[in-house]
Amino acid sequence: MMLVFFFSLMAVAVVTAWLLASRRPEHRAVAVLLTFGLLADVGTHLFDVGVIVPLREALGVQTPWTGWARVAAVVYNALVLAWPTALVATVIHVFTKRAPAIAIVGWALVVAFFSIVHPTTGSQQLALTLANSLAAFVAAGIVVHSFLNTKKPASSAQFALALVSFAEVSSLLGAWRIGPFENWPISQVLYLALFGVLAVAQGRFLWFSQPQPSL
């Protein structure tokens, strides 16, 4: 039930993001990010339940997976790392106005690393948490650096990305303090709060915004 509520609230945030993007073109990057995040989360959950869990039960995690099972492990790792990569790419695009190619290259290298060093999907959870932590801190670092070096008010896109970045950092700090394998209910509550606040904030921006010409 919590998972359904989570996806529903995330979908509300996606809808409000696209409505705001129709008024503020700079917010399209956030709308795309949230849409991608929703699809990636749903896809990861379905792939985990339908493919990875049966493989773990059948093959275990003590010996390397081979054949199509190893391919499935690579796909799973790629899906898990897709959201933090997309967040960093969007932050780079919105805050620095630069192409986010470095984030995509980093994602490919990390996925390749996991496919070689951790050829199962049960032995690398700590490493995945570390990779997600690095991405979250990179995104938050870019946000902080930008805010400290500009006097312009934050745009709706920058405000939304700051919320998401700091929520990711808070969630991961909690994971390391409590234990990466024990914090999922806490993370769920944090993400529910994030998407609730994000939906309200985007709705407020939408209420007070005037239509702008497309870029």
Structure commentary:
With 215 residues, the protein is an all-alpha fold. The chain has one domain: Rhopdopsin 7-helix transmembrane proteins (Up-down Bundle), CATH 1.20.1070. It has 7 helices and no strands. Helix 2 packs antiparallel against helix 3, helix 3 runs antiparallel to helix 4 and helix 5 runs antiparallel to helix 6. About 3% of the residues have low confidence.
Topology:
Blueprint: H1 2-23, H2 28-59, H3 67-96, H4 101-117, H5 125-148, H6 156-178, H7 184-208
Helix pairs in contact: 1-2, 1-7, 2-3, 3-4, 3-5, 3-6, 5-6, 6-7
Compressed to H and E, one letter per element, the order equals: HHHHHHH
Strand content: under 5%
Q: What is the 3D form?
A: globular
* Count of extended strands: 0
Rg (C-alpha, Å): 18 Å
Overall average residue pLDDT = 84
Helix fraction bin: over 70%
Q: How many distinct domains? A: 1
Annotated CATH topology? Rhopdopsin 7-helix transmembrane proteins
Indicate the CATH architecture: Up-down Bundle
Biggest β-sheet strands, sense, barrel: none
Distance between the termini: 41 Å
CATH class assignment: Mainly Alpha
Derived structural class? mainly alpha
Provide keyphrases for this structure.
215 residues, Rhopdopsin 7-helix transmembrane proteins
Summarize this structure briefly.
The chain is an all-alpha fold.
